[in-house]
Every structure is written in C-alpha cells, then in structure tokens.
Amino acid sequence: MIHPDTIVRTVSPLLGNGVFAIRDIPCGTVMVVRDEFDICLPYDDFQKLPDIIRESMETHVYHDREGTLVLSWDHARFMNHSCCSNTMMTDYNLEIAIRDIRAGEQITTEYGLLNVQEPYEIHCGCDGCRKQLRPDDIDKYGNDWDELIKAALLSIPDVSQPLWDMVTPDIKHRLEELRLDKNKYSSVQNLKWRK
Fold it and tell me: Is this prediction's pTM over 0.85?
C-alpha cells in the first residue's frame, strides 16, 4: 500500500504516468508497505502466463528476494526510477523516503534494488544518471544506498506515519532493534535475487 498523500499524474508522453506527492512528506516516512492485496507470482508461474499478460505486467512488477514477481495493487506500481530517487526499497518489507519530498514533486524509486535481470537503458535526467540499470547494481551501489536507508529508517519515530498500522509486528520489532543498536541494520544486499 502506498502513502495516502500521493496521486498518479502523467509525467510525459514518453514516460507515461508517475506518482506525485500532494503534500510535503518528510524523510523517514514509510512510503510503501507490501501487503496481502499485492499480487505475488512465483517466477515459473509468471513465465507460464500468456505473452500479452506477461508483457503488460513486466513494466510494473519487481522480483523480491525469493524471485517472486510482485505487482502492487494500488498506484505504487507507477513509481518511476531515478538514479537520484527520493525513496528506496529496504530489507524491512517497506519503501522509505530517504529525503524530504515536496508537494508536487514526483516520487521516485531506485530500480536497481528491484532485481533487474537484464541491463537496460534509462534516461532519468538527474545529475549522475547511470544511463543503464544492471543486475549487479546492488553489489556496486549497495553500501551507499545502505547509508541513505539506515539514516531514513532511524528517523521513522520522528515523523507522522500514516502507513504504520500496515507494518507487521515482526518488522516493527526489527526496526526497534535497529533504533537501539545501529549494528542491527539489515542491508539491501539481502534483497538480491538472481534466476
């Protein structure tokens, strides 16, 4: 489930739709929580789908750590990539705002954390755009991403959390352990899956 202060709008004819903030959202805000309404298909089952369904879904699904393909049921599936994203997937079954997001700003994520299986070109337009997503992005950038994510996760108690009730008790417990001991952080390296 995606944060309620978001809306889908057209970004451009080339990019299509994206998700935008309708109010200011501070760093440390839980932006997306995977829930029981998300569609989760094992990799082999996904491959058995008719081509037309697979091709349509491929734009909006990601691989989790087990290789399961996940399709968000709400408009979280329209979040676009940016190499300078303002949210990131974590090893806590949630996406977190890694910096303040202003009302009207597009909410973006780092597709390098979503287990891309083949390199593909990107044109996010930000300073430092990598120009290509690669299967080894987690290996190459994971330590830098971990620092951003850890700082944001530690800010969770300091900001309003509309999705907090969606976070499972075991994840809440892990986040409390992290707050008490920063060495308990669970790296994005744990998200990595390869077929």
Answer: yes
